[in-house]
Structures are given as structure tokens and as C-alpha cells.
Amino acid sequence: MVSKMSSGWVVMGERQVFAGYCLLLPDPVVPHLNALSVAGRGQFLSDMAMAGDALMAATAALRINYAIYGNLDPALHAHIFPRRADEPPATRTAQPWALDWSLAPEYSDAAYGDLKRRVAAYLSSATPNF
Predict the structure, then answer these.
(1) d(CA 66, CA 52)
(2) Which residues does residue 78 pair with via DSSP β-bridges, in sequence order?
(3) Engineered SS bond to 44: which of 7, 66, 68, 83, CB 3.0-4.6 Å?
(4) pLDDT tens by residue, 26-42
(5) Who contacts 23 (Cβ-Cβ below 8 Å, separation ≥6)?
């Protein structure tokens, strides 16, 4: 867990296909974005962008890729991927699901804890305390 947000929780991805990969999980769980009220949708999407801001600040990412699918797992969740200018040419323009996730390092606090704390610090300074 990285941080509590107004709409849910930011967590680090189990496989760090890109260093800093996070997910935003709504609280309470809903099946898809359209199951939220208009205000709830706005809050979820705003929190998703704020998590992207935090990742840009913590990783010096060039851009952030966002994805919301829910076809396999019928519970709303947003994938948030920091993308860097120094990515290998073979992956620089690839969408994350085209990569071999089994080769991606697993999240561990030893490897990613400092990054997680920087993202959490950014989010706690930018959002109200819960």
C-alpha cells in the first residue's frame, strides 16, 4: 500500500514491469467506472491523475500511461505506468501488456521501498489526510 486517496487506495504493482508501476483501487469496490456516481467518477479519475503526478515527481518519468480495463477482473482498478526516456528502444513504444511480465521484478520493499515512500510523501502533501 502506498497511500489512501479520497476514492480508494494506491498500491504498488506486484510485478514492477516499469519501476513505480502502481494501481488505484476504489474503496468501496465497484464493478466499473460507470457504476460510480458522477462525482465519484470525477474523484477516481482525479486521484488517478494525482498518483501519476506523484510518479512523475518520484521517478522523473517522461510521461504516465493510464489504463482501465476490467474485462478479466470485474472490479474497477486503474493501472498507472511511469514511462522514461531511457527505456530500451524495444520497449519504449510498447504497451505494457505486450511485455513479458514474468521477467519483471517482483515488488519488494528492499528494491522499491524508497520509491514507494517518495510517492506516498508526494501524495500526502497534495491530498487531505484520511
Answers:
(1) 8
(2) 24
(3) 7
(4) 999 999 999 999 999 99
(5) 10, 11, 13, 77, 78, 79, 80
